[in-house]
Amino acid sequence: MARYGMAIDLSACVGCAACAVACKLENEVPPGVSRLWIRLEESGTFPELHMQYRPEQCLQCDEPPCVPVCPTGASHVTSDGVVLVDAETCIACGACIAACPYDARYFDPRGFVSKCTFCEHRLAGGRPPACVETCPTLCRTFGDLDDPDSDVSTAIRGARRVDVLKPEQGTHPKLVYLNAPASFAPRREGALR
Amino acid sequence: MIAYYGVVNDGAFWHWTTLLHFSLVALAGGVALLTAYRALTWARFPRRLAWTAVALIALDLVVLWAESEARFRLTHVYLFLTVQPASAIWWGAWGLAGSAALGLLLALGWGPRRLWGALLVLTSGVALLYPGLALASNAARPLWTPLMLAFMPVTGLLVAWGLALLFRQNDLRPAVAGLGVSGALLGGLYLVGLAFGGLDARAGLGELWREGGPAFVVALAAMLATPALVRRWPAAAGLIAVAGAILARTLIVHIGAFMPPSM
């Protein structure tokens, strides 16, 4: 079985939001909520002014805090390591939304919780997630983290630096950020799995 | 400066009905525990108390159902068709359902009263404990610290038993006084824990203070005042303690839910 992961090269992201639009269309995400958004952060003052675009979404954690709190098992991890919500058994209690440190989940108006699925319906057909396929600067790479020859493993190996969001939460995200500008340092995880 | 393309999912995930549930579940669990206590210790068991417990549990479940985004999908049945011991809400569902069933048996006078009473101690205890567990299991929410595991059941029981003083259950006065002092001390300890905690905990304390700090202090003072009032004015003392406990619980749940997972 694969252990799917994604890497986003922040030095190549231009903040065009094509990934966010592709996600919205591909997954028919309702208005008012997002599976993927772009964070634009400025810091410093002239002449030391810095700007960074950072796409954010479900980080598909290896230790997802949203899964054990689910009272019906609707939140689950597939054998490929993708964290999903089974809409059929979700009671929309919001426990997983409360538990997620990344605000990655939302209430779908149809009465269940939803989030990024790494486009599992596309993966089943051998295609990459819509955000990866759409990115015009190829800053996103996707694949099996356990396969040393996969695109994502190669990108992580070749990166100047590798970061994850909120490593202190111990969630071990499988979505990592590459080559973040030093001034933004999202905080590095001690040991990237 | 930070800006976003797209909507960050940081809106409310629990609404006012959830806040109401946090008070109702305390009332339901506490009255169920009182029912169990009476069933085990009193020769003439007051069936009206058991009916009250059942009615409060039913009201709480209706509020929960009405609050749910999935209320017309009937998926709540999966709470009882799956085994999820790591989930506080799963335990809460079983605690409330079990308490309702046992309360009904006691109210109808069917079966061995003492056995039902003993089992009701367990199920009502679960119902009282689960809100604290549901909050404390969110490591990403700075205001919902592990101290909730003690604060929520103590203040929950105070809500129910304090209210019972209005109905002349005066043998509960020492217990209510003890619960009032315990709730206030745990609340104080909670504030100290936030003040001396990490960056997120201190940010949480700042948020709690900005949004409802004075109200929280008043709530703790109301609970602390219980022992001084409960001998002469038990009903007033009970009411003040209930108000304090509900206010403190509501502030922690409400502000904690709206505060971003990490500042």
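Residues 18-26 of chain A form the longest helix (9 residues).
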